[in-house]
Amino acid sequence: MLRMTNPVRHYAWGSATAFPRLFGMPADGPQAELWMGAHPAAPSEVLLDGARISLDHLPAHRPEMLGDLPELPFLFKVLAAEQPLSIQTHPTAERARAGYAAEEAAGVPLDSPSRRYVDAHHKPELVVAVEHFSALCGFRPGPEAAADVAPWRTCSAPRARDRRARRTPHEWTRR
Fold this sequence. Notes:
The protein has six helices and six strands; from the N terminus they run ββαβββαβαααα.
């Protein structure tokens, strides 16, 4: 067993108090995600034979630890959200592989803002709350969503030129 040192990712929605309280680590601003794994953007490190080795390079040093796997296939995250997060969507395994391959073939740099697939892995998720939290998960069935937006159809393109159609959402809901 190897002890990992894990990087913290800083995002505006992170908490300044959660990780110090949970792990005793100092806060240097909003701390959003503690990453444990071999993701090349922020790999964990282990002490191996007296040297610090990033987890994404561990297979080169100890290939027997992974058996037939070419890489360590996981990224475990501990999130500390103090502000609401943006919508999160993740591709299927097949779509992730295809999307990553297409962007690699097109030469899209990994750090490009237009890059959508930074690796070839899908992102299955599991939530285990260590404190109280609220989440909105999934999407409403199509017919229900369509029924919800039906009243807003008055602002469709042909009517957008009509001064009465240029109302605020608050005005649309008033009867």
